[in-house]
Amino acid sequence: MLELKNIKKSYDNKTILNDISLKIETGEIVSILGPSGSGKTTLLNVILGLTEISSGQIIFDGQDLSKVPMQNRGFNIVFQDYALFPNLNAYDNIIYGLRNKPGISTPEEVAELVNLLGLKEHLKKRIDQLSGGQKQRVALARTLVMKPKILLLDEPLSALDGVIKESIKERIQLIAKQYNLTTIIVTHDPEEALTLSDKVLIINEGKISQFDRPQVIVSQPQTQFVEKFILSQLRIKRDNIFRLFGNLPAAAAGAAR
Ligand code: ADP
Ligand code: MG
Q1: Closest C-alpha residue for ligand 1 atom 5
Q2: CA 68 to ligand 1 centroid distance, Å
Q3: Which residue lies with its CA nearest to atom 27 of ligand 1?
Q4: Residue 8 CA, ligand 1 centroid: distance in Å
Q5: CA of 37 to the centre of ligand 1 (A)
Q6: Which of 44, 98, 111, 119, by CA, is between 20 and 30 Å from 66?
Q7: What digits encode the pLDDT tens for the residues 50-60?
Q8: 196 touches ligand 1 (CB under 6 Å)
Q9: pTM for the structure as a whole
Q10: Which residues, other chains included, contact 231 with Cβ-Cβ below 8 Å and sequence gap of 6+?
């Protein structure tokens, strides 16, 4: 279990994270949802250990990690831009981290991940021969072969569209459940957060607005911010479609008759 206690982070007297406290259970998928500049990436980097906190505590499985350097925490991140090595093919990217820590994943385990992520026929390709969705899956595989204790993802879906986005979402859910892997995902898209995760952490200007199951966020928004900026966004989207094209899709109306 991961627990954050009263986390604060400031840069030059400007408060970026303000008193963040929460608990995340092992195997949970948690989205960090908030507008641009609200502190999402900073919070992810604080958990990873890349960014030092100003005050507070990070506890993981009973151990205080607040002063433990990134490489000893055993967490791992997929950055927003994937950060793949362009001079290596997909397979060599995936197994790159195993050079320094051989044996963390067996060849069979690597093969299983490659299969789960649907990458089998792309392993020999150079990175510039892969689509955005394929690059994202290679980046995921590269991180997962290192068997992180927590998987951190910074806007993993924002560069993808439509069907590809849905398929990556499903794979993230599949992997989190299959490996009982705690997964923390940054997103600015309310629909994505609510459909992908077990719990959603909504932050605004570095403060927690609400941290609940999607069901609870939708039915019982706790703050003006959640109501006005998160839920209303979804309603406006829906209403725009229905205003343009009518209240019921023709197929659904037909089926209802
Ligand atoms: P988000 O990911 O939600 O868009 P960030 O966590 O990247 O937001 O940034 C939150 C705020 O912290 C922004 O105002 C940003 O300018 C500031 N910030 C982030 N990193 C630094 C840094 N290294 N030095 C100073 N300010 C920073
Ligand atoms: Mg960010």
Answers
A1: 39
A2: 22
A3: 11
A4: 13
A5: 6
A6: 98
A7: 999 999 999 99
A8: no
A9: 0.91
A10: 190, 217, 218, 221
What pLDDT score does 252 carry? Answer: 59
For residue 253, pLDDT over 60 is answered with no
Q: How far is the CA of 206 from the centre of ligand 2 (A)?
A: 12
pLDDT at 242: 83
- Is 206 a pocket residue for ligand 1 (Cβ < 6 Å)? no
**11, 43, 44, 80, best to mutate for ligand 1 pocket (most atoms within 8 Å of CB):** 11
